[in-house]
Amino acid sequence: xxxxxxxxxxxxxxxxxxxxxxxxxxxxxxxxxxxxxxxxxxxxxxxxxxxxxxxxxxxxxxxxxxxxxxxxxxxxxxxxxxxxxxxxxxxxxxxxxxxxxxxxxxxxxxxxxxxxxxxxxxxxxxxxxxxxxxxxxxxxxxxxxxxxxxxxxxxxxxxxxxxxxxxxxxxxxxxxxxxxxxxxxxxxxxxxxxxxxxxxxxxxxxx
Length: 207
Hints:
TIM Barrel, alpha/beta, 8 strands, 8-stranded parallel β-barrel, 9 helices
């Protein structure tokens, strides 16, 4: 399933219901090719409700929905996959729980070694960053565009760049080898979500 992963990867900003489904639909209309539900709330009921609402939107547009960090929630709602950070469990366990067709992404920060291992363990894509200063994760480790160049030579799975990416600085990362650009505030904090998403999508020649 990972072969089609390219373009804008829109990651939700925790704004929640009732505006979240409409915002995600606007991002998709602007060209988002992948959506991640990212919500750090400990309210399991809220997370389940929101994730299900986004599933309906994404399924209606044929766009995969990925759940951040939470394999159990992804399994409960029948999401298309999960994104795993450093402390979110093993790829192999997520694969068993979600099945062979699930999309499993892994955060690799600034580590090519971690990305190579993730690919070996069955990840469908790997994410590097933060490439620029990020309001969502101000303390995140920084990665350089050269990392994408090196990763592109060593890996044959899609590469995602994340962290402070704008339509202005994103072109450099696409040129370096990023298949996807992930954006949170750059899309969902915009006054016009669809227009913001389209600006990112325009960096990819196939869109």
